[in-house]
Design a protein that fits this description.
single chain; mainly alpha
Length: about 140
């Protein structure tokens, strides 16, 4: 088997495994943020969480597939490691950026929900006071 094909197979296996691991971590921990934002609506939190995970998979696996191509021929074992380190390094950076973007979006959604809750008065108004003429 050609060394380039071996590098491709290893690249795909490691990249897909990393993508699945990051997506599961985001899903498991992001659900708590969504449940808080959605005022305890667990069913809606699960649905939104699932949609976010599907989007994460599509973007990252699409990038992994597009980045698979290589113009160079790998001649030896050292070349396999060099090609894999470059490709996997870029995939890890993209996964990190996507992870931070997801955390940022979840935090913004959560912050908006907290601010909405703080804008509501703790008790309904109990009366009305007419303005005074001197004020």
């Amino acid at each position: 088997m050609d060394r380039t094909v071996i590098a491709y197979v290893i690249y795909l296996l490691v990249s897909i495994a990393l993508t699945v691991w990051v997506a599961r971590t985001l899903s498991r921990n992001g659900r708590a943020f969504l449940a808080d934002v959605l005022h305890g609506n667990e069913k809606l939190a699960d649905a939104v969480n699932h949609l976010l995970v599907v989007g994460f998979y599509l973007v990252n696996l699409g990038f992994v597939a597009l980045y698979l191509d290589s113009d160079e021929t790998i001649e030896n074992a050292r070349g396999v490691f060099e090609a894999l380190s470059a490709k996997l390094g870029v995939v890890l950076l993209v996964l990190g950026v996507m992870h931070l973007a997801n955390v940022y979006v979840l935090n913004r959604i959560r912050r908006r929900g907290v601010m909405e809750r703080e804008q509501r008065p703790p008790v309904p108004p109990q009366g009305w006071v007419a303005p005074t003429a001197g004020a």
